[in-house]
């Protein structure tokens, strides 16, 4: 508990609250060869959102389908896509700044956004400017997309696929609806390619209700642990039914603590593992402090455990990357997961977003769901449960559709299963936990519905960099008028 409090204080020190700064409305910067661009957009007064776009060297203009752009959304809420998703999961470079051979840049241009404002390099000048609902975050993201896409014919050529992980799934569906609305109103010029929900927290109730029994089935809890877990899950269900959303968030935190103690610290991101042995890793789950505030720790300790890097993500993002980007305010620190962002969202954290998935499906938007087999926090069993609650008219046919096995690379065994009906696509990814692109990079890149690539049979090629990564390879800031027509 003591370590926990220390961490909270430490994070408190680096929370991106920048008072009284004269921050321009938005600024962009990039590499001289145009392969990377990044910048800030002031999505609301005092709320500054950071984005980073990578253009793929593999881009083909005349393929069977238009070259896609993937907008990657991280979870938390409060975790940084620009740091975690980019350097630990799918970006062109890993945390040692070495090329990642499974980068999604092979198949798409990549747009990482630190969302909600306050996460990663994004910041607010006033705590009151933090977003408090999923819908609010969807609107902020749409404001950012208007700034980037409107008047930019190059970007408009690529359909946008919103791909989310974990809590990011709730943002993906709210931003999906908000994008569709803005397109219809003639306020946003882009093509929405689809929405992908990777191990996404769409229906918290359905996840917490599976935990006890699932963990007992795989020997991680005994009957007593299962009972305790299920009774707290029932309490959450009751609280949600009564609209006591913030209380449900507190009960969720208690439930995770109970499961941790009853299971000798199972890893919530892969139930076959123990949570990390280091003090930070052991706090990958929320803790309720005596203050009643919650703290989310070590979101990416599971990911860090996959690398032998000597540099922590924190040092990387506050060191060479911050220097490269040039436009990050000097007095702010990048943080992997900001508790204040999480706490601002605590009234929405447990709310389901099944209705939003239904709306997207009935609008004809492609919705892809993929889930790692050994994820606990967003267990496949829970994902299947909320899918069965959809009111979408295609559900019965989806259930009856034939499930196909998927293979990948030189490995002869089954890697995944896939089922599709009309615009709903579901991938069951074997031997993967919460972080599918990291645990099963080969098959992640072969989910054709994710990229609409029309090339389901391709195998993973090693990513070729055009040259050594240059940290100082920057050109002067451009005025945004020339790059992006401002539309408010
Ligand atoms: C969208 O693009 C069309 C055609 O390129 C153009 O006429 C229209 O003004 C654009 N709208 C916005 C909001 O940029
Ligand atoms: C919800 O939490 C508040 C504040 O802690 C408490 O006063 C209230 O009794 C709780 N409601 C329920 C139904 O548990
Ligand atoms: C959905 O995905 C399929 C398969 O890639 C594609 O043929 C179809 O055009 C997509 N639909 C929409 C509305 O984008
Ligand atoms: C990518 O790297 C991993 C780990 O370094 C290696 O096992 C794999 O064979 C590589 N794949 C390709 C296609 O180079």
From TrEMBL:
GO terms for biological process: proteolysis. The keyword Signal applies. It holds the Pfam family Peptidase_S10. Keywords: Carboxypeptidase, Hydrolase, Protease, Signal. It is an enzyme of class 3 (hydrolase). GO terms for molecular function: serine-type carboxypeptidase activity. Belongs to the peptidase S10 family. This is Carboxypeptidase. It comes from Vanilla planifolia (Vanilla).
